[in-house]
Design brief:
The chain has helices at residues 3-11, 14-20, 74-82, 86-93, 104-113, 119-142, 146-164, 168-179, 184-202; strands spanning 27-29, 32-35, 48-51, 62-65, 71-72. Helix 5 (104-113) packs parallel to helix 7. It is 57% helix and 8% strand. 22% of the residues are buried. Strand 4 (62-65) and strand 5 form a beta hairpin. The protein is globular, with a radius of gyration of 21 Å. The longest helix has 24 residues, at 119-142. It folds into two domains: 3-85, Zinc finger, CHC2-typedomain (DNA Primase, Chain A, Alpha-Beta Complex); 96-202. A five-stranded antiparallel β-sheet has the order 1-2-3-4-5, with helices on one face. It has 207 residues and is an alpha+beta fold. It starts with a helix and ends in a 5-residue tail after the last helix.
């Protein structure tokens, strides 16, 4: 499971997601919750089961409907409930994420859809774009100044070019570098140094 998809599954539970939609369990047995299935109609006996964290070794809640066979994780549930694509379901949980002001994610995927490329490669490229942008957005929320914004404007354009070239290995490497301590951690250190210099300058210290 990719790090950022895993993060979504851990931070948003299936039970909380269903509660937000006014859907509550009919009964509980041991540590399992039983619902009338929200995915398919006509469920008179609760066939929709939410399993606790740890079931089958997974560190997030899972589910399975014994009636319509919908199942596995929160992203699948959103997809099946609203009859949308996995891409749209993922973007719902990362709805505040945009790779840049020009909507490079959508434009890149639209471009790929017009070309002869396997569905698996399309999905992988899109997931990597979302994940790269997610970690960068989190960084910019902490380290927000003009120098960082300028860097990431250039960075996102390069990522877009790499995505269009279908270089999955390089995209995966970029994500790994960002998450690694040698990636954004170094930019945070440099950002803090700049802030310290600004503070000292405001006090008329020579920096």
């Amino acid at each position: 499971m990719n790090y950022y998809v895993d993060k979504i599954l851990k931070e948003t539970t299936i039970t909380a997601f269903l509660e937000e939609r006014g859907i509550f369990p009919v009964r509980k047995s041991a540590d399992k919750l039983f619902y009338l299935c929200p995915v398919h109609s006509g469920d008179k006996v609760p066939s929709f089961v939410v399993y606790p964290v740890g079931t089958n070794g997974r560190d997030y809640q899972t589910y399975h409907c014994f009636g319509c066979h919908s199942g596995i994780n929160l992203i699948n549930l959103k997809r099946d409930l609203d009859h949308i694509s996995p891409r749209e379901a993922l973007k719902y949980f990362l709805k505040d994420i945009v790779i840049d002001q020009d909507g490079a994610i959508d434009s890149t995927i639209d471009s790929l859809n017009e070309e002869e490329i396997s569905m698996e490669d399309k999905k992988e490229i899109e997931f990597l774009l979302l994940q790269i942008n997610y970690v960068c957005k989190e960084h910019l929320e902490v380290c927000n100044d003009e120098e960082e914004k300028d860097f990431f404007n250039i960075f996102f354009k390069q990522v877009d070019k790499i995505a269009r070239s279908r270089n999955l290995e390089m995209m995966d490497g970029i994500l790994g570098t960002l998450v690694d301590k040698g990636g954004l951690a170094k930019r945070i250190d440099k950002f803090n140094e700049r802030q310290d210099k600004k503070d000292l300058s405001a006090l008329n210290w020579r920096v």
